[in-house]
Amino acid sequence: MCGIVGYIGTRVAQPLLLEGLKRLEYRGYDSAGMATVDAGRLSLTRAVGRVQNLEDRLGELGGFGGTVGLAHTRWATHGGVTEANAHPHRDGSGRIAVVHNGIIENYTVIRQYLEEKGHTFKSETDTEVLAVLIGELFDPEGGVDLESAVRAALREVTGAYAIAVICAAEPDTLVAARKGSPLMVGVGSGEYVVASDPAAIIAHTTQAFPVDDYHVVKLTRDGLRTSNLDNVEVTPKIMQLELDLEQIDLGQFQHYMLKEIYEQPRAIRLCCRGRIDAREGKVVLGGLAQYAKELVKSRRVILTAQGTALHSAMIGEYLLEDLAKIPAEVEYGSEFRYRNPIIEDGSVVIAISQSGETADTLAALMEAKERGALALGVINAVGSTIARETDAGVYLRVGPEIGVASTKAFTGQVAVLTMIALFMARRRFMAPDACARLMGELEQTPDKMERILEQDDAIRTLTEKYVERENWLFLGRGYNFPTALEGALKLKEISYIHAEGMPVVFIANKGPQYDKVMNNIEEVRSRGGHVIAVATEGDKDIGRVAEDVMWIPDTPDPLSPMLAVLPLQLMAYHAAVLRGHDVDKPRNLAKSVTVE
Predict the structure, then answer these.
(1) From CA 73, how far away is CA 126, in angstroms rounded?
(2) For residue 31, what are the β-bridge partners?
(3) Is 2 considered catalytic here?
(4) Among 105, 76, 101, which residue's Cα sits nearest to residue 512?
(5) Residues 572, 573, 578, 582: is their CA dihedral positive or negative?
(6) I want to staple 207 with a disulfide (CB 3.0 to 4.6 A). Which of 123, 187, 231, 493 is the partner?
(7) In order of start, what are the domains of the chain with their CATH numbers?
(8) Is 259 a catalytic residue?
(9) Which of 2, 167, 271, 435 is catalytic?
(10) pLDDT over 70, % of the chain
(11) What separation in angstroms does the CA of 87 have from each of 2, 163, 458?
């Protein structure tokens, strides 16, 4: 969720960088920082908390000059919420500053290598390791300029990154690069804005291009150069941003979430406009027209997503099986990518993501494509990575969603999945009149939404009666089972019910995903979590990140669940005994359930 803003041009960078950070505050963060280069000198400051704290700090320092700079809002992954761990990070010489989104998975190995060369570190972050590595490789006298040093450093790292780099020794250069984490370059007149989100660009230019994976962009006031990690030059595709400032303005609302809840009737009208012909009983989805025959003949549909999008995918599964009579299944993107999925001939994968940048969903999509599936996307962000990687797809057209807790994107996803199901159903088994009836009902949905919104005050009064309750239970069946899950998720996301600080149990045995689990543990620790690990005997690294460890013998990964579950069973048993419960006769639980 971190935010990156970078600028190079003719204007003083500080005001533009602060403005960009404020437009990215919705993404969630715990600290912020800024660095600029002025008269061959690198100035850098950071602050824990809100962007306003950073702005106050800059005021105390008298402000930063310079027409090239970087700024960042951090959401802790490695190391706690401290100024030392906030971005930007310097290299050992203090000449180079780096901001970074993502995770460098092999940072511990690189850090050890750099420490052996005499480097010291001031933070617990993976980003500082990258900054120091770039500084180690930077050698202008030896012909290694900043761009070359960044490229050489990135050839040594594994993981995900979107980075921007400046250097006091090259005051007229800004270097950006990306792999797996979104990054865009806004193209102005004699200036460029680098950002992780178009919201930070749109006030300055509507022309931009996404940085592709493994690409490095060198920006100067005279122009840009884009190349891959092998230094082969490539030409970026500049596009028009489909966003304006009015769309991301709060207007009369106090919060973006409420604004976007109220935008849902209009959003669904835009989503369906031109796509429904109820009189003819047809759904017109231009993005899928080229693959209509393949969809009709498909034998299986896999929907992959994360979070709220996963709940819409579950509804999509019901829709496809119920209406189009085609086998469908939902896959967590984060799990699909790490197993050996069976993709048969006639398989279709639908990747669902508001941003089009969800890393796990993208990885699942790429895995399915590699195995021969037809890849479709249900995406809100035009030009996003998933949108570019799919064979075809349908945009939501619900407008930018600024609130972190998704609302209109969810209803937009369900609307699009309904249209896809009808698109396939009409071409397979569904009669025109039956299809027309459903489409007519879909067209009326926005009006019905508006009637529900009229109950806003009454719903608030009702909520006040129960808001102090510590436990809420959401139930639903059929199509509304996923709806219940989404309702529960929303309550947890924004009210923190059942979201208190608590012990976090990780199964961290040695296996193919060990390094990724270790990085996940670092993320939890940085947020104050107490880590309990189930780990493999002889693991010398786990004690560094876990407060408590339960050990299991080493075993092949496919057999590890039979071992790893035992300490969890024992932990549950002792917890029940210590709380005075009848372990053998837990309440409201039967050994055999014989009723529906």
Answers:
(1) 16
(2) 48, 74
(3) yes
(4) 105
(5) positive
(6) 187
(7) 3-246 (3.60.20.10), 250-454 (3.40.50.10490), 503-578 (3.40.50)
(8) no
(9) 2
(10) 95
(11) 10, 11, 45
